[in-house]
């Protein structure tokens, strides 16, 4: 084999070695748990077990056409359940793990320092800062001169280098700690020490700001976007609780902005989150929602036939709504991955942070995303006291009712209508929290809350089996077990992976699903065309492919798309048992207690779809697969092209020199052949 070919092959091997090493380092950086260790039926399974990843992915895929306000979004309060008193660099460096565990809503408490003009996660005042000096420089993004406070920071520690590293060029060194992208004065304030410090009851990393937190969020959304890892792509919600620290300025000059420009939350969010490969934003904002609601047909694809509270513009005929939310697939088609909302805001009236109104164009208010006060209305303690008898009545004087026609609900019994002075909540963005409950959510209570239609909101700092168990403050593995209770679809150990086509059946005894042979003869689950909560069961037994024509008029063969719909189907199964119970030996026949739902695997056990001849959206996007390949090895590909060019140039140069030499030799040979020589005798 020629030497240049050997060298090229070695370079290709090196490229793939670099990719493998990068993936290895990435996993090491995250330090995700190897196995689930909590007291659940999944105990001992690996973090990437298909008995967990496939059910969670199935729940995502079957709900593509459900509006996002009715989805299941497990939430965690970072201050209460993750940080506690530990805001050290080590604890901060692992916050990204929560997103990979499956938490979809992170409640973040931010503290405005009126002296430093910056947002931080540490709940106490940070140490004094080095005195900045003003210098003038020209920004590379525009030609405006800006006054920038500069100070020489000490060398960062290894942990800080890890946290400060980022795919964004503007945040890859300590010297780029300030992250504003506005055309005004920027404060570049660097702590005297980069080491963790003890401040009152807290241990904090002084240099860590909200910008660094958003860099971790950016790591997650870019690593799991549609073009990179569509099988793992999901939405992420951030809820920001805003507080202000006490000022050290005795002259009470908090309103004086002469010392620098405030860090706008809007600017931090927009500068930290990378755009998509199509150069569009990953953020879905209130302005986007307002625009989409003005014409539902052009945005969400609604025609007015759906059960929506719609308004028809008489001038244009456009269908509009004040309450409609996009579906999950609508956001995925636009590469949207992040929504940010306000929770509680307790900034003083004289705060020197002046950009709340500006932020509202990017950050939803607490009412829109059901955050803040709304997330704390339904409590696990009260629901347990009610005995879980009525999902729509989580407390004596609290009721959860449909507020819009498009909301599905477990109906209230006629004798339990809301009292005049009762608290009435909507099923939209509904949460159940475990505040005040000891020991908080367990696997069973989480599953009960989810089956009722509530998203769990975790507020405890320890979810281990033994509340008195000793564990490292930086150990977050116990938090991963909480997500297991959100699996409402497939039963334990299901679906079984097989190369043969399998179809889904719902079990009468627990309402969970199992995979089986599509040729079995079973009764069929049928959903009403206009009411996703209304189900009936056929009396005839058919195979899966015959189930599509087995339902009566006004009903369709379908599967539940959200947990609440699955609960309603389960109730229908129990009613059927009391009215049409099998007799004699048939009572013990398994197939009299299994019913078809519209879900099958085709030839891929990890991809479950509704309907025949379908495929998972994340398997058919070949363009995204190519984009992933190109983006993953872009630098390596450029290196290969340069090397190939060098080898080609060397080879062409050799060939050209050889050609010129051969021409010259032939010319001299021909010249000598034409000359006549005379021999002179001695």
Automatic annotation (TrEMBL):
User: What keywords are assigned to this protein?
Assistant: Glycoprotein, Membrane, Signal, Transmembrane, Transmembrane helix
What InterPro entries does UniProt report for this protein, alphabetically? CTDL_fold, Telomere_Capping_Maintenance, TIM-barrel_MTC6
Q: Give the stretches traversing the membrane.
A: 629-650
The record's subcellular locations are:
Membrane
This protein's source sits in the domain of life called Eukaryota
Asked if the record carries the keyword Hydrolase, the reply is no
Main localisation, per the record? membrane
Report the Pfam families cross-referenced here: TIM-barrel_MTC6 (PF25506)
Give GO cellular component annotations, separated by semicolons.
membrane
Q: Which residues form the MTC6 partial TIM-barrel domain?
A: 49-469
Membrane topology reported for the UniProt record: Single-pass type I membrane protein
Its biological function?
May be involved in telomere capping.
The name under which this protein is listed is Maintenance of telomere capping protein 6
